[in-house]
TrEMBL record:
Belongs to the peptidase S1 family. CLIP subfamily. Pfam families: CLIP, Trypsin. It is found in: Secreted. Its EC number is 3.4.21.-. Residues 85-115 are annotated as: Disordered. The gene is 6045063. It comes from the Eukaryota. Keywords: Disulfide bond, Glycoprotein, Hydrolase, Protease, Secreted, Serine protease, Signal, Zymogen. InterPro entries: CLIP, CLIP_sf, Peptidase_S1_PA, Peptidase_S1_PA_chymotrypsin, Peptidase_S1A, Ser/Thr_Proteases_Immune/Dev, Trypsin_dom, TRYPSIN_HIS. The lineage of its organism: Eukaryota, Metazoa, Ecdysozoa, Arthropoda, Hexapoda. This is CLIP domain-containing serine protease.
Length: 384
């Protein structure tokens, strides 16, 4: 756990009520050099809820520390509306936050040799680039970290979820995909493209090496997973892959640098990949791709109030929706798959497909697990 004294010092600055500051605002730059406003922390729900979390990771504490710009003030990328009225104190009103952040830090895992994540010379490489359009079939060797999860509890066996390869031994997926499955009943299909062929060949007779059907040694579901909260899990492969990987199987990068940990990825162009349903069939035979744009958790919460379920969102969620006015989103069967952003030429996993309204039928956003909120848990559990 991160140093509690450091957290206490941060909270004293941010949440201390001895001095009530005015709501004067001014321009500022976040640690990622993005424009923001220096505002009272109550006007920045994401950072307010982070400061109020029971447990903070080292990266989250660093983020809060770097965003402080005055007494009870933070540099906020997307503050709530600011007025010149004096702030209302907790003594006169009980605030009900739109977004709260449950703790995501977990106990130390079982002893073992910790595994490293690959560097950008290996991870996130895609020779095809952004060649295709949303909702189209990917190229044969595009997004080589996408994993198809086959369930042998089905008759016949069927692909029902996706995942992302992050190193030679581990796949990230959604907890709801594997919570009630035995490790013997699930297979990770690595280097997959066409679910009905092996090896895969495109229309020009270019072929990949054979798909690897990897057995699972261990399923690690986030210990605080509850329905739509902390919906993330790790699959440990029985056998490690070749350390140099393969032409059709490579890992995606994870956002472990300080700059990426502090990036909220709001209004970011992203891509989602999987074998989920299409307009004409419940499951796609081929690996498909769609383009979306992320929105803030607060925007997302407001938009999803139109739905019957009215889900409650947290700071460890990230949302994305169509940027074109056409209904596009991840679909059933895409669960657990990657939401990816291209940063400086490398693809990074920033979200894990979670839940949302029926895909292809609405412009409402889908909801994903925010990967930066779980980096401590992920790295602690990468045990060989």
């Amino acid at each position: 756990m991160a140093n509690p004294l450091l957290k206490l010092a941060i909270l004293c600055v941010l949440l201390g009520l001895n001095t009530i500051s005015s709501q004067e605002t001014g321009p500022c730059l976040t640690a990622g050099a993005k424009p923001g406003r220096c505002v009272d922390i109550d006007l920045c729900p994401f950072l307010r809820d982070l400061a109020q979390a029971a447990v903070l990771s080292k990266q989250e504490q660093l983020l809060l520390k770097k965003r402080i710009c005055g007494e009870r003030k933070v540099c906020c990328e997307e503050p709530s509306s600011v007025t010149s009225e004096p702030p209302i104190t907790p003594a006169s009103v009980t605030r009900k936050p739109i977004v709260t952040s449950p703790p995501t830090r977990t106990p130390t895992p079982t002893p073992g040799r910790k595994m490293a994540l690959p560097g950008t010379s290996i991870c996130g490489l895609d020779t095809v680039g952004e060649k295709i359009f949303a909702g189209e079939r990917t190229e044969l060797d595009q997004f080589p970290w996408a994993v198809a999860l086959e369930y042998r509890t089905e008759d016949p066996a069927a692909v029902k979820c996706g995942g992302s390869l992050i190193n030679t031994r581990y796949v990230i997926t959604a907890a709801h995909c594997v919570k009630h499955v035995q490790k013997e009943d699930i297979i990770a299909r690595l280097g997959e493209w066409n679910l009905e062929a092996n090896p895969d060949c495109d229309d020009y007779n270019n072929c990949n090496p054979e798909v690897i059907y990897a057995e699972i040694a261990e399923i690690k579901v986030h210990p605080q997973y509850r329905q739509r909260q902390n919906d993330i899990a790790l699959l440990k492969l029985k056998k490690s892959l070749n350390k140099d990987y393969y032409v059709h199987i490579r890992p995606i990068c994870l956002p472990e640098s300080a700059d990426l940990m502090q990036n909220l990825f709001i209004h970011q162009n992203v891509s989602v990949v999987g074998w989920g349903g299409t307009e004409i069939e419940p499951r796609s035979q081929f690996k498909m791709y769609t383009s979306l744009v992320t929105i803030s958790v607060n925007e997302c919460q407001a938009e999803l109030q139109q739905t019957l379920t009215k889900p409650k969102l947290y700071a460890n969620h990230i949302c994305a929706k169509s940027a074109t006015g056409f209904a596009r989103d991840a679909c059933g069967g895409d669960s657990g798959g990657p939401m990816m952003a291209s940063v400086h030429g490398s693809w990074y996993l920033i979200g894990v497909v979670g839940f949302g309204p029926p895909c292809g039928k609405t412009l409402l956003p889908g909801v994903y697990a925010r990967v930066t909120s779980y980096m401590d848990w992920i790295e602690d559990n990468l045990v060989d």
